[in-house]
Amino acid sequence: MAITLKLNGDTHTVDAEPGTPLLWVIRDKMKLTGTKFGCGIAACGACTVHLDGDPVRSCQTYIEDVGDSEITTIEGLNSAPAQAVQQAWIEVDVVQCGYCQSGQIMSAVGLLTSNATPTVDEINDYMNGNACRCVSYERIRAAIRRASEIMEA
What does the UniProt keyword field contain (predicted)? Predict the structure, then answer.
């Protein structure tokens, strides 16, 4: 079935069956591999993308439920909060293995878009559900705090 998507600022038509997770359309049909498959049950956050600016788990978002929403993947991030997060991630040297990082970044951008100066508790609450096998949580929190500082400057 032909489906039209708004992805990273462009409109695309893809052939996908109803019930296909958005994750597989992004990775297999659109060839954008920054969005990762982690658990398949929306528990780890590796597959996080933005749907109209809000972080969602693409492994449990079905293609027919996207409608006219704007989908943004890690490859399409370009907002001021996204630039601050990317700079902070480098400054704080967050990444170890890197597998979870696109989902972590997508969630962090979602947080800072809705709350530019979150407390540590707000960061912990918002980022809950984004798993990191390397246990880089303290550096992730530090990078989010640093991104908030960058945005304030």
Answer: 2Fe-2S, Iron, Iron-sulfur, Metal-binding, Oxidoreductase
